[in-house]
Write a structure and sequence with these properties.
Distance between the termini: 41 Å
Number of domains: 2
CATH superfamily of the largest domain: Type I PLP-dependent aspartate aminotransferase-like (Major domain)
Strand order of the largest sheet: 4-10-9-8-7-5-6
CATH class of the largest domain: Alpha Beta
Largest sheet: 7 strands, mixed
CATH architecture of the largest domain: 3-Layer(aba) Sandwich
CATH topology of the largest domain: Aspartate Aminotransferase, domain 2
Length: 407
């Protein structure tokens, strides 16, 4: 076990155990009705945890699509899809490519997509022929853990791997200057919508990337479906026409899309062919579950017929109501809102008190966030009612007020 992993376990294990004991982590539910869930022991609560922001995960069309796929093809076909797969999976990738305007490949998860694409990219095999093949990978400090986890694999292929402060474009430009002197291509890894809230500064980032020839690899899992007229995400809309050969975007079929799994959007067919031929998790693992394929094909229709665009407006209204009641530390639109508490024990205690009031919310503390930055992570969806949002806000205000009076 690496020293870093041992250190994290030693520092975080007691806090995680406490959160589990309080019913805030490693728990389960036996029934759901909208955002109301029945938890272990029969306790009922309104949850602010599910990332299905548009509520498509319970849409009747998706449920019927999932059933049809299983009825037709069974639960699974145990074979690497580089050998043989079902026709609807091929159809889904073609539909997603048309919807998102690029070459789409699906994976059982966004993490699996990263595992196929990032090592291939680090080798230089996905770079345009005009680019320098020596690569300098630059991670945004808050880039998703599913990308950060692959740093050792990337380091085996890339010339340089570094990290810069969150959304610090001056630091990125400094890396670009250093790469230019070293004869390297900069590949910047960031999120479109960050998992703890907030966006990347996309217009400024695109301008900087074009000026310095920076390759962009952006995880837009949390932005998929909730941005763009057809749900193409928070990143794809930066380019009206074809996606430049220096941009790769990953998307989620869970979260806003309402299904499960994820994928990657590549600019060119030759890049997509390389991933299919040499991506490890593509060549040696199965495709999406068949039920997911069937549901996702139905979800594509809802992205095209205006349903998703209407739901996006409803989601913004829910977020605005939450911000009006609770406040927010960011002006960016994101369905992920955070309530910063600071002290880890106090954050877990507040989460437990909210659960006693009937509201289940994620408590984020080290190692998910830095020391002293513990916070409530609130995920909002179109199927939260006004009464549920108002009730959560009232409970939060009362509980924080009680803490302040006793401090």
């Amino acid at each position: 076990m690496a020293r870093n992993t041992r250190f994290v376990i030693g520092e975080a294990e007691a806090g995680i155990a406490e959160a589990a004991e309080l019913g805030l982590m490693h728990t389960h539910f036996s029934a759901r009705d909208g955002r109301e869930v029945t938890l272990a022991g029969g306790r009922e609560a309104v949850e602010f945890i599910n990332c299905s922001y548009l509520g498509l995960d319970t849409h009747p069309a998706l449920i019927e699509g999932a059933k049809r796929a299983v009825d037709t093809f069974g639960v699974h076909f145990c074979c690497a899809r580089s050998r043989l797969t079902i026709e609807p999976n091929v159809q889904l990738e073609a539909e997603l490519g048309g919807l998102f305007r690029g070459h789409a490949i699906t994976f059982p998860s966004v993490t699996a997509a990263h595992m196929s694409v990032l090592p291939t990219l680090a080798s230089g095999a996905l770079l345009p022929r005009s680019a320098r093949t020596k690569t300098r990978f630059v991670f945004d400090k808050l880039a998703h853990a599913s990308m950060q986890f692959l740093r050792p694999v990337i380091a085996a292929e890339a010339t340089t791997v570094s990290t810069i402060p969150h959304n610090d474009l001056q630091a990125l430009e400094d890396e670009a200057r250093a790469a230019d002197r070293a004869g390297e291509t900069v590949i910047y890894l960031a999120d479109g919508v960050y998992s703890m809230g907030g966006l990347c500064p996309l217009p400024e980032l695109v301008e900087l990337s074009e000026r310095w020839g920076i390759f962009l690899y952006v995880d837009d899992a949390h932005g998929t479906s909730i941005f763009g007229r057809h749900g193409e995400g928070s990143v794809r809309g930066a380019w009206d026409g074809e996606l430049p050969e220096t941009v790769i975007i990953t998307y989620s079929l869970g979260k806003g899309f309402g299904c499960n799994g994820g994928g990657v959007l590549l600019p060119s067919k030759w890049q997509a062919d390389r991933v299919r031929r040499f991506g490890m998790t593509y060549g040696f693992s199965a495709p999406l579950d068949f039920s997911v394929v069937g549901a996702a094909l139905e979800a594509v229709k809802l992205h095209r017929d205006g349903t998703v665009e209407r739901l996006q407006k409803e989601l913004r209204a829910r977020v605005a109501r939450f911000d009006e009641q609770v406040g927010s530390d960011t002006r960016d639109f994101s369905p992920i809102r955070r309530v910063v508490i600071g002290d880890e024990g106090a954050c877990r205690s507040l989460g437990a008190d909210l659960l006693e009031r009937g509201y289940l919310v994620s408590t984020a503390f080290f190692p998910v966030v830095g020391r002293g930055k513990a916070q409530l992570r609130v995920c909002l969806g179109v199927n939260h009612t006004d009464a549920q949002i108002d009730g959560f806000a009232e409970a939060l205000s009362e509980l924080r007020g009680a803490v302040a009076r006793t401090a």
